[in-house]
Amino acid sequence: MISVNDVRIIELPKFLDSRGNLSFVEQMNQIPFDIKRTYWIYDVPGGELRGGHAFKQNHEFIVALSGAFDVVVDDGEQKKVFTMNRSYYGLYIPAGLWREMVNFSTNSVALEFGSTHYDVSDYVHDYGEFFKLKKDGKI
Ligand code: TYD
Questions:
Q1: Do 88 and 12 meet the contact criterion of CB atoms below 8 Å apart?
Q2: How much is the pTM?
Q3: How far is CA 32 from CA 57, 76, 91, in A?
Q4: 3-state secondary structure of 131
Q5: Which atom of ligand 1 is nearest to the CA of 41?
Q6: How many A from CA of 120 to the centre of ligand 1?
Q7: Residues annotated as catalytic (active site), given as ranges
Q8: How far is CA 52 from CA 32, 70, 95, in A?
């Protein structure tokens, strides 16, 4: 059963340069899945929450390209908070966990990679439903 202990921070390559720094990701390398989708969240008003849901199949990899935010992951028993505030760290979140993104700083940009195409039926939007699926070993 996937738990919050399966979520991990992955340090990305970082080329420090007086002209500006560079980092990168590659699928099946820093990102431990084939990338089917990339999206980004930006212009988040102060105090807003994004991503209060779980995915049944989609694995994610999140980078704070700019600014800072917290990712709260929850497996129904335990919660963990990951503060993302460097553009050379990625957060790998396997499918089957509830997650929320909170405390966005002004001008923050969250870049997200997914292992599946967008599919609304892959979402669990209700925490009670998530908790039951988790308890029954179905997610
Ligand atoms: P949603 O996943 O609900 O955002 P969050 O969980 O971060 O709050 O997505 C918001 C809207 O964007 C929703 O109407 C569906 C659409 N969307 C896509 O069409 N493709 C995508 O890859 C994503 C992530 C969202």
A1: yes
A2: 0.97
A3: 14, 24, 11
A4: helix
A5: 7
A6: 9
A7: 53
A8: 23, 13, 14
Q: Token digits for 44?
A: 């988040």
CA–CA dist 58, 95 (Å, integer): 5
Q: Whose CA is nearest to atom 3 of ligand 1?
A: 51
Local confidence pLDDT in tens for the 139 residues of the chain: 999 999 999 999 999 999 999 999 999 999 999 999 999 999 999 999 999 999 999 999 999 999 999 999 999 999 999 999 999 999 999 999 999 999 999 999 999 999 999 999 999 999 999 999 999 999 9
Tokens of 30: 């820093």
CA triple 10-12-14, angle to 5 deg? 155
Place of tokens 């979140």: 93
Six-digit token pair at 47?
A: 């105090």
Name the pairing type of β-strands 37-41 and 109-114: antiparallel
In the structure, which protein residues have their CB atom closer than 6 angstroms to any atom of ligand 1? Answer: 37, 39, 41, 50-51, 53, 118
CA-proximal residue: ligand 1, atom 9 (nearest): 51
